[in-house]
What does this fold into?
Amino acid sequence: MASRLELLLPWCRLRFPVSGTSQTRRALGRPRLSQVRLSSTEAAAQRAPGREEADSKVGTRKKTFSEVQAERLEQAQRTVLINCPAKISEKKFLTYLSHHGKINSHYFYESYGTYAVVEFSEKDSIASLQDVTRTPGIEEECAVPFKSRLFTLTLKNPSTQAAHQAPVHCHKQSTILINDLVQKLCSADSVSNQLYTLMDEYQLTEENTKLRFLVCSLIQDIACAYFPECTVKPFGSSVNTFGKLGCDLDMFLDLDEIGRSPTRAKTGPFYMEYQMKRVPSERIASQRILSVIGDCIDNFGAGCVGVQKILNARCPLVRFSHQPAGFQCDLTTNNRVAMRSSELLYIYGSLDSRVRALVFSVRCWARVHGITSTIPGPWITNFSLTIMALFFLQKRTPPIIPTLDQLKDLADAEDKHIIEGYDCTFASNLNKIKPTENTETLDVLLSDFFEYFGNFAFNKNSINIRKGKEQNKPEPSPLYIQNPFERALNISKNVQEKQLDRFVALARECAWILQQEDKGHSSLSNSQPWGLAALLLPSVASNCVKGKKKRGQASERIKSLLDSLKINNSESLVNNGGKRTFSNQTQ
Ligand code: GTP
Ligand code: MG
It folds into this structure.
C-alpha cells in the first residue's frame, strides 16, 4: 500500500540544481524554484510570518520576561473557560456574557468538546458571572462544590437554538501531521523559508499561550486555598519561545512572597513571627506542599485528570492532564533555577529570528527520528538539544548570540540573582544586547549544525554556553552539557552512548544530504521532498542504520565534498583543535 507520503509526492515541488558558489550561498541562501526567484533572506522576510513578526519588532522596546509574565498572569485572572455547544450563536453568547462586564477578547477551540476562552476587562465580572452560575444537578453522583472559573454553558432549547446554526470557528491547538508538514515544506522556495514555515506551523499561538496562563491561574486558585499569597507561573517551553503546540505545561508554585519579611516598619520592643510547622529540609517542605496541593487538584480540580504525585524525583512534582486545555501539566515548587533558565532561553529566542527557526527545526527533526522522546529515558531531551543549538550559534563567526558570561557582564544591580547559592545573574533587558552582525542564512546554519555536531569530539569535549567554548569533559558521560547555572552538573547525564551515536550518525547523514543538494548532486530523484523536508523522512534514519558500516564512507564523502568546496570556492578550511570547520565569513 502506498504511504501517505508517496501519495502526496506529486504536490511536492520539483528540485532544481543550484548554480553559484558556496560563498554566494552563504550570503544569500539557496534559491529554489519559484516564478520570481528570491534570495532566502528576501523570501524569509516576505513569506515567513515568524520572521515578519520578529522584524516588525525592530525599533520597538522589547518587553522583559518578567514583564510579559506579569502582564499575562494578570490577564489570566480576568479570564474564564467555558465548555459550550459547538453550534452556538457567537453573537448571543457574547451578549449574554457582556451582562457581567466588558469582554476584551474571546476565542473558541476544540478539546473533548468545544470551549471558549473569554477575557473580561475587569476581574469583578467573574464574581458577577459566578453569582448567576448554578451548581450542577447530578442525579446519581454528587458534585464537589468547588467553584472555579471553568463553566459549562448549555442551550435552554437545543433543538430550536442549534437547528440552523453553523459551528463556531475554532482556533487550532495542535500541530499539523508530519506528512502535511512535509508537503508544506516542499512548496517553500528555500531551505530558510522551510525553517520559518515549520516554526510558523509549530510555535505556540497567541491563543494557546493565553490558555496556558489561564490553566496556571486556575491551579493558583486551588493552591490559594492554603497559600493565599502564592502564584503559579508557567516556565519551560510554554514561555521560553521554543514551545510547540501540544507541549507540556511546566508550572511553578511560587511561595516566595510568603517567606518575605513584611515591608511595614517594625516598631516597638517586640518581634512577632508566625508559628509554623518545621521540617528537616526544603525538599521535604516541597514534597509535603505538593502532596497536599496534588490531592486538592485530584479531588477538587475540575478538568484535571490522571493526577500523579512524583515526589521522589530530583525535582518533586505533581503531574496531571488538564483535559479541557488538552495538555499535560507538571507542577513543581522551589524550582527558581529552572525559571531563570526559561528566562535565559527567552532572551536567546527573542534576539534573532534565526535562533527559534533553527531550534524548532532541529527539535522537530530529532522528534521524528526518535532522538528525543516524550518518555523520560536515555535520550537527549529537548532542553539539551536547545542548549546544543544555542552553543552552535555562539560559535559562529561573528557569533549570532552572546555567551552567558557576556550577558552577565551586561547585567544591572536588579539583574543580580543568586539562587540556592548559584549565580544566575544575566541582563534581562533585551534592548541592551547589541544585535549580531552575522548575516548567514538558515540554509547555511542548518547544514553547518549537522556538520558541526556530526564531527564534534563528544569523547573529550563538553558543551558550555556560559563560555561559548568547548571544554574538557570533567567526567566520562557520553554527552556532557554543562548546566548553565548549577555548573557542576551535566544536564545530559541521562544520555547513553547508543543514543548519542544515533544522533551523530543522523547528523552526518543530514549534513551529507544538504551538501549534496547544495552542489546539485542529490541522489534523490526530482519528485522527492528536498531540503528540510527530506531530512524529516523516515528513510534518513533507515539509511543511517543500513549505512552503519557505511559510516566511514559517509565521512569520506563529506570529507571529499569539503575538499572540493575548498578548491572550488576558495573557502578556507581552518583546522580548529584537530576539528575541521569552515571559516564562515560572509561576503
Ligand atoms: P518540552 O517540554 O520538551 O517542550 O521542553 P521544555 O524546555 O519545557 O523541557 P521540560 O519540560 O523537560 O523542562 C522544563 C524546564 O525545566 C526546561 O525548560 C528547563 O528550564 C528545566 N530543565 C529541564 N531539564 C533540565 C535539566 O536536565 N537540568 C536543568 N537544570 N534544568 C532542566
Ligand atoms: Mg516542558
User: Anything to note?
Assistant: The CA atoms of residues 286 and 304 lie 21 Å apart.
